[in-house]
Amino acid sequence: MAGILIYSDKDKLALELITAAHQIATVLGQEIKAVAINNDAQAQVLASAGADTYIISNAEIVQADVAAVAAALQQTAEQLGIDTVLLASNRRGKELAGRLAQIMGAGCLTDIAGIKVADNKIECQRNALGGATVAIQYIAAPRKVIAIMPRAFEPAGAGTGKISHLDVAARSSGVKMLELKEKSSDSVDIEGANILVAVGEGLNSQGDLGMVETLAQKLGGVIACSKPVATDKKWLPEDRIIGLSGKKCKPELAVLLGISGQVQFTVGIRDAKTIVAVNTDENAPVNQMADYILNADLHEVVAGLNKALA
Ligand SMILES: Cc1cc2nc3c(=O)[nH]c(=O)nc-3n(C[C@H](O)[C@H](O)[C@H](O)COP(=O)(O)OP(=O)(O)OC[C@H]3O[C@@H](n4cnc5c(N)ncnc54)[C@H](O)[C@@H]3O)c2cc1C
What we know:
Elements: E1 3-7, H1 11-28, E2 31-37, H2 40-47, E3 52-56, H3 66-80, E4 82-88, H4 91-104, E5 107-112, E6 114-118, E7 121-128, E8 133-137, E9 144-148, E10 163-165, E11 195-199, H5 209-219, E12 222-225, H6 227-231, E13 253-257, H7 263-266, E14 274-278, E15 292-294, H8 298-308
Parallel strand pairs: 1-2, 1-4, 2-3, 3-10, 4-9, 5-9, 11-12, 11-13, 13-14, 14-15
Antiparallel strand pairs: 6-7, 7-8
Helix pairs in contact: 3-4, 5-8
Bound molecules: flavin-adenine dinucleotide.
Residues 130, 200-202, 226-228, 241-246, 258-260, 262, 264-265, 278-281, 284, 297-299 line the site of flavin-adenine dinucleotide.
């Protein structure tokens, strides 16, 4: 029987992939299998979410060597009779998707935000034309590698899966890992945040970031930004960018300060549950997607909120 294999080195993303796999498996009557590479703890997590999980224990397969991981997954797919592999569409997952598809002889789609099975085809939803529209695409080839955006699906709940061991030969690409560095302590996961306070070019100066940071802390959230604030002004690191070339976020609350709402930005925040837009321009496009609009100077609004929340 053809099956679906899921893989991500991040537990949370792997659990989201199990949910995505269920959408396909229930319609096409396929089995869901997961693989954990040199990570017994992750195998427990995935099995507890209902996926039959295979552990590959081979110290020669290191995560940084994406070609070696791709080779391991290709062998796994072959041994288990898999025709569809779901990966996470984060930076490493996208590289892995291309490499794996090439050696599997599969078709490949990345940045997938939704999945539906119709007429025995796995229809994949992804942004097109710079985020101005949504395209529905499917892979016509019998083998498929599909990379799914973080947070497109909820993590899978409890289930019961078996854990087995699988032997695959390591095929190192020659990449030698010299050092593994932890991310700096000020790096923040804006994709995982429940409350975001995002600033745009409407902010007067870098010095005003302090009051925005204070507001974010008072609300229990984190600070994010539009692209120019990070790439042109360099006021915040690039991992805080929301949008097409940044992160796709799905917070409960997004407070957007001095952001016009160009489509390349809004694709990254339109799934927020509640959006508050603060803008001096009452015709700013961001207002079309906002639940609450404050037609005001953001500096006055932030100062007022900080005082009120003191
Ligand atoms: C291929 C490509 C990819 C891109 N990817 C991204 C991306 O991932 N993320 C992204 O953000 N952009 C991206 N962009 C850029 C995008 O098109 C916009 O240029 C950008 O989002 C604009 O940022 P902004 O809203 O902060 O600035 P602006 O468009 O300049 O808007 C500033 C807003 O602030 C308001 N304002 C001014 N002063 C105040 C004040 N005192 N109080 C309140 N409001 C005020 C103004 O009315 C205006 O609406 C991309 C562009 C391209 C071509």
